[in-house]
């Protein structure tokens, strides 16, 4: 988990800090929630915090995807490095395409996207 100054690990503070950084950036940026969270968290709370703190709207200049990891106790490192499946949730095709391209380049030639 991203730790802020003083050891704060509150994910909402981290999301707000990221939004503040993105406020100063130009062009399209993609934010991906990798943690397995309660359904609705990414498109609800994370989206709201990002939009408020960045001043940008998800979809036009800011992409937002969810891509949870499926890790088993005892094999988490191997599962993270060699996933047997990758799930991508997005609000728009551009975000999904960006993440698919990024993952495809890092996963190698055996990576297949099932849609």
Mind explaining what this structure looks like?
There is one protein chain. The protein is an alpha+beta fold and 115 residues long. The protein contains four helices and three strands, in the order H-E-H-E-H-E-H. The protein has helices spanning 11-23, 42-54, 76-81, 93-107; strands spanning 29-33, 62-66, 89-90. A three-stranded mixed β-sheet has the order 1-2-3, sandwiched between helices. Strand 1 (29-33), helix 2 and strand 2 form a beta-alpha-beta unit. The radius of gyration is 15 Å and the shape is globular. The model has no long low-confidence stretch (mean pLDDT 81).
Detail the topology: elements first, then pairings:
Layout: H1 11-23, E1 29-33, H2 42-54, E2 62-66, H3 76-81, E3 89-90, H4 93-107
Parallel strand pairs: 1-2
Antiparallel strand pairs: 2-3
Helix pairs in contact: 1-2
What's the helical proportion of residues?
A: 40-55%
Please state the overall shape, judged from the principal axes of the Cα atoms: globular
Strand residue percentage: 5-15%
Averaged pLDDT: 81
Strand order of the largest sheet: 1-2-3
How many helices does DSSP assign? 4
- End-to-end separation: 30 Å
Over the alpha carbons, how many angstroms does the gyration radius reach?
A: 15 Å
Structural class: alpha+beta
Q: How many DSSP E strands? A: 3
Would you identify the regions where 5 or more consecutive residues have pLDDT less than 50? none
Largest sheet: 3 strands, mixed
Q: What letter string, H or E per element, gives the SSE order?
A: HEHEHEH
């Amino acid at each position: 988990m991203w730790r802020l100054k003083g050891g704060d690990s509150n994910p909402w503070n981290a999301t707000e800090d990221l939004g503040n950084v993105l406020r100063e950036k130009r062009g399209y940026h993609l934010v991906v929630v990798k943690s397995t969270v309660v359904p609705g968290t990414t498109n609800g709370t994370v989206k709201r915090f990002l939009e408020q703190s960045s001043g940008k709207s998800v979809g036009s200049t800011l992409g937002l995807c969810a891509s949870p990891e499926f890790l088993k106790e005892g094999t988490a490192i191997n599962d993270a490095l060699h996933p047997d499946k990758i799930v991508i949730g997005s609000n728009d095709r551009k975000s999904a395409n960006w993440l698919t391209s990024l993952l495809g380049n890092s996963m190698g030639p055996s990576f297949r996207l099932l849609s």
